[in-house]
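Following up on my earlier thread - several people asked me to post the actual chain instead of describing it. Fair enough. Here it is, all 81 residues.
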Amino acid sequence: MRKITAILIVLSLAFTFLQLDYSKVEGGSYEYYISHWQEVNIPNLVTAILADWRAYDTLGEATLLFTAVIGFYLLLGGKKK
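Reply from S.P.:
Thanks for posting it. Predicted structure:
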């Protein structure tokens, strides 16, 4: 059962990653940051990037790490009795 679950997870992740669009966006995030940084009501551009957009990125990374650790824990069988 674990092997089937692991295979299904790997296949679903592979399918998801193959569907992503890896093409380069014209302008990128630089132009977005320059044109929208005053939306967060912080007077400094660098502080606005760190306080607003990078905070979401860090929260996402922490959630991903937590999910991966819990997933491996469950996949390996949890606590042994």
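The CA atoms of residues 40 and 52 lie 7 Å apart. That should answer part of your original question.
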